[in-house]
Design goal:
globular, single chain, signal, four-stranded antiparallel sheet, alpha+beta, three-stranded antiparallel sheet, Immunoglobulin-like, 2 domains, hydrolase activity, EC 3.1.-.-
């Protein structure tokens, strides 16, 4: 789990900027707004090498190895990593690769385009740019589909590590969005902002979907830009992002400038409207007994009586039970004949994992 405090941010900035080669960002001093974005686009495009889509799997052992959580050498997957406990499953590099959606979580991993391929018609070099393509569980990659990123207010699917897809609760957009866990929101924001910076001259030729802006500046739709700025501000650059940026530079000879210098996000697009998400649940719940053995799940937490709905998702992310006013008369949930397995309890307060034995 990231444990970066405000007092360390200045030191972190110095360390991250020092990772870039000397003079790499020459010409950016004094620039801001569209001028800074365009200059950065020129810098990170010059010298960049396209190693091909197939080459990504060869790079991932250097760029996406878990040396920070379990520290076991497995694939670091944002959609299955549990930063607070054991992962529900993990992958070894080169084992269980798949070219399509997996049948179940933990079945195979593939290459997830943070900016969907459909928006740029699978054209090079976007289709193989490692800075926005991460190894990810095939099933959860399928959940994400080509939806934009945002805060989910009403989930239809939840992965085993708590990533969600469902109705948007982000201001300015009411469609379907995908929301990763808090640990990786800043990572995704900096990848999205990298993409619209590197490819700003091509944005007018891409499909915008519900994500891209269609012009060099600002490059994103206004609602999505505010989500990305907020996520980047709330989830600072982590050590493993720095390692990944260095590995990506070694692989394709360009860098993500917003990892090297997070301040450039504000210099280009302005400060986030808010540094917190009022509709994002932060209150933890305690579930017991866990595993559940008698069909009753006890829940401990603050203001349980204010929770309007509890939803239970199975290991495939499928909604299997909905309970209205679940804690009106106590703190027990009666589970409906759930078979043995892993489940996710979703409420307005928190997303928690439990087992049925």
């Amino acid at each position: 789990m990231k444990k970066i405090t405000t007092l360390l941010l200045g030191l972190l900035f110095t360390l991250t900027l020092a990772q870039a080669p000397a003079n790499y960002y020459n010409g950016t001093a004094g620039l801001e707004g569209p001028a800074l974005k365009t200059k950065l686009s020129q810098i990170i495009t010059a010298g960049a090498q396209d190693k091909g889509y197939a080459g990504l799997y060869n790079a991932y052992p250097t760029t996406d190895t878990d040396s920070f959580y379990e520290n076991d050498g497995s694939v670091l997957d944002m959609y299955s990593e549990d930063p607070t406990g054991p992962d529900p499953y993990n992958y070894q590099h080169g084992v269980k690769k798949c070219g399509d959606i997996g049948a179940n979580e933990g079945g195979c991993y593939n290459r997830e385009h943070i900016i969907p391929q459909s928006l740029f018609s699978q054209n090079a070099p976007m289709v193989s740019d490692i800075h926005h393509i991460r190894p990810a569980d095939g099933k959860v990659n399928g959940y994400r589909s080509n939806y934009p990123f945002g805060v989910v207010s009403n989930p239809s699917r939840i992965s085993l590590n708590g990533s969600k897809v469902g109705t948007s609760g982000s201001a300015g957009y009411g469609g379907t969005v995908f929301e990763p866990i808090d640990e990786f929101k800043g990572d995704i924001a900096r990848m999205v902002l990298y993409f619209v910076t590197r490819y700003e001259s091509k944005l007018s030729t891409f499909n915008t979907g519900n994500l891209l802006g269609g012009s060099p500046f600002p490059g994103l739709q206004s609602w999505e830009l505010e989500v990305m700025k907020t996520w980047a501000a709330n989830d600072p650059v982590s050590d493993w992002e720095i390692v990944r940026n260095n590995g990506s530079y070694a692989f394709q000879k360009n860098r993500n400038p917003f990892i090297d210098n997070p301040q450039w996000i504000t210099d280009i697009w302005g400060a986030a409207l808010a540094t917190s998400e009022s509709n994002a649940a932060k209150t933890s719940l305690i579930l017991y007994p866990n595993p559940v053995k008698n069909g009753e799940l006890n829940v401990k937490g603050n203001d349980l009586n204010k929770i309007e709905t509890a939803k239970i998702f199975d290991a495939t992310g499928k909604l299997v039970q909905t309970i209205s006013q679940p804690f009106k008369n106590g703190n027990k949930l009666n589970l409906k004949n759930l078979p043995k397995g892993v489940y996710i309890l979703y409420t307005e307060q928190a997303t928690s994992k439990f087992m049925v034995d």
